[in-house]
Amino acid sequence: MKLLLTSNGITSPEIEQAFEKLINDRTNLKVAIIPTASDPIEWILEKEGDVAPYDSVAKLTKVRDGFENWPLYLYYKNKGFDVIFVDLKEDPQSIKEKLLTVDIIDIPGGDGNWLLDWAKKSGIREYLKDLLDNGVIYIASSAGNGLLMPDIGLTWWNKRWKLDRIGFGIINFALAVHQNENDLVKNKNNLIELKKNYQAEFPWKIFLVQDGQAILVDGDTVEHIGPGTKESI
Question: What is this structure's pTM?
């Protein structure tokens, strides 16, 4: 399995080198970008008696324009790759047929709960691991990592939430992305307390992934890469 799980994309020389290692000098690759997490949404209360934020549901606010000016799209096009966009709100069979044709799946960030909900509705849980086991490279940034994790709720979930926190569990660790010692939530000591007091079992190792860093998985090797301090809890 080849995974490049980043905090904020391919934004450092070390991550770029890791990407080049994963593609192993191959050219003419085909990439599927899944942009669903970045959909324009708002969280609303649907019925009387609902309590914010615990009962909130996400709704699209508008239909998005094209993606041709996206930096991520241009990044791959500049490498000469064929790039398609796959929205998880599409027909599930169409999604599967498209993903079966690609060499790389890239899922950028946005709203992790919205992404997880549509990922489960789309049915990709049934075959994503098989794709990765058979050589498709998975690139992600921020919320895009959450699909592979066993649980995405460390920094926000408690038993009052109705939102789903259970990821696909394709990896046996978690990432705290955008980790920063100056952040009230994502400083190391607070993350340790959140893990200790989590209202469900959370036995997994958590990599503290700062912007500019990534977790590189290549077969059985898991490596924390990028500039800065590299820690886990």
Answer: 0.94
